[in-house]
């Protein structure tokens, strides 16, 4: 279990909220747009990652991998971020945040589940009540930037309409269609502009153009040497 100290930002204001996360689930290959998902599958195949046997696929990862730190340590430097919407269940209610499914691409070529486990998953410290965005979920926009070779570039961008809706996403994992309290679920990502590649910094955001607000986060990537 890990404890996240977050801020709940609603139409009524901002209040602190503490969430004890016992289960972390990462939904992979969760595209609603089959063409975009196929593009992402092909770009990972180019790195040696095998096609998934089924879509979506739900990967279980240690909850302790969730982090609100401003930097992570990456062994070997083969990791890269993926911006994703984040669903968190607490006291029978859903909260919406944003984070990065940072993944070791070298390890991913021989074990996707292991590649998810070896990297921390940075998340923003702000969440929204799900009910405030439920009626315009598809309008929300995911966006990421990465610093690559010293240059900050747009890395990913697109609306959530390209990914599975929360009800379908949760329904594919939980038989009763309800995300249990203490569970956090990453909701899938979109193709990288220019291809998947590592960087020294990753920044992500979830924009709500209807309510005109945004959740943003960022983290530096420190590369650790591999000995032997």
Main sheet summary? 8 strands, mixed
How large is the count of helical segments? 4
| CATH fold type | Fumarylacetoacetate hydrolase, domain 2
Q: Strand order within the widest sheet?
A: 2-1-12-9-8-15-3-4
Specify the structural class: mainly beta
Q: List unreliable stretches of 5+ residues.
A: none
The backbone outline, from C-alpha atoms, is globular
- Average pLDDT reading: 94
- As an assembly, this protein is single chain
Termini separation: 32 Å
CATH architecture term: Alpha-Beta Complex
CATH H-tier superfamily: Fumarylacetoacetase-like, C-terminal domain
Count up the domains. 1
Strand percentage lies at over 45%
Give the CATH class: Alpha Beta
- Strand tally is 17
